[in-house]
Amino acid sequence: MATTTPDLSAVERLELATRQLVRDLAAGDAASAKHGRGVDFGDVREYAAGDDVRGMDWRVTARMGTAHVRLREEERELTMLVALDCTASALTGSRGRTRRELAAEVGAVLALAGAWKHAAVGLALVDGGVRAVESPRRGHRHALRLAGLLLDAPLGAGSFADGLAALDRLVKRRTLLVLLSDFEDPGLAAPIVRLARRHEVIGIQVTDALERRLPGAGLVALEDPETGERQLVDTDDPGVRSWLAARLASLDHDLGAAFVAADGDLLRLDASAPYAEPLLAFFRRRARRR
């Protein structure tokens, strides 16, 4: 799928502003990934349609109960694919930066950190499907291009859950997938777990603290950014505030459970607060566990 060359002025500003963070992330192995779930499975992956049956690892297949094949040489070095949620739900923000802008900026920083580590980095823009994809490649110029595409990514329509299902069908080679989204789609658990069968999955959830604590402002007209549906809400009503808190708690619980089931990592970032330290601490903890 073709993409256009972006104006790099915003990218250059971002690169200057985040240069030290990029270097710190690269030093902490932000762009690396582990192979498998243990020593026995470090050189195999689950069978995918089209794989050569001559590469089957029958011992692991028997142990796991599902077909596994031995990794080809080019699969032994994992690549990173940054997947940005381009649905409209993240277009909100309370302090000058939307959740979508934060997600795009973090994705750009991770692409640059990957280039600093000489890793192959790719990009997928995801809405109800995979709108555009850039194959993983090495090099600083390629990472700058990805950063620009992230910052300029157009809005799409549909469900992010459907987009992740499409991404699962598209990405065949074992990959470190970094999913950038608000993760407010209740149907995300199943596609995240499916992706984790063949890939290593990291979720970076962008939130906004003020939006999660509905301010008491009387009657407010709210609009769903994805459907356009409008509703008049009494923000002083304890029942409304309780419903919102319960809904967010349920979504958070289900999302956390999905990443536990996927043996993946989840980081929550607040669009109304600085993100450098939480992002760096997350990848440092992750590196120590490996």
What is the tally of beta strands?
10
Instruction: List segments where confidence is low: pLDDT < 50 over at least 5 consecutive residues.
Output: 34-42
Fraction in beta strands: 15-25%
Instruction: Compute the number of helices.
Output: 10
Which secondary-structure class do the elements indicate? alpha/beta
Separation, N- and C-terminal Cα atoms: 35 Å
**Morphology call:** globular
Order of helices and strands: HHEHEEHEEHHEHEHEEHEH
Mean pLDDT: 81
Helix content range:
40-55%
Biggest pleated sheet: 6 strands, mixed
Report strand order across the widest sheet: 5-4-3-6-7-10
User: Which radius of gyration do the C-alpha atoms yield?
Assistant: 20 Å
What do these coordinates show?
- This protein is an alpha/beta fold and 290 residues long.
- It is 40% helix and 20% strand.
- Strands 5-4-3-6-7-10 form a six-stranded mixed sheet, sandwiched between helices. The chain has a two-stranded antiparallel sheet with strand order 1-2.
- Helix 2 (19-27) crosses helix 4, helix 6 runs parallel beside helix 7 and helix 7 packs parallel to helix 9 (238-261).
Task: Map the helices and strands.
Blueprint: H1 9-17, H2 19-27, E1 44-46, H3 58-64, E2 68-70, E3 79-85, H4 99-116, E4 121-126, E5 130-137, H5 140-151, H6 160-170, E6 175-181, H7 189-196, E7 200-207, H8 209-212, E8 219-223, E9 230-234, H9 238-261, E10 265-270, H10 276-289
Parallel strand pairs: 3-4, 3-6, 6-7, 7-10
Antiparallel strand pairs: 1-2, 4-5, 8-9
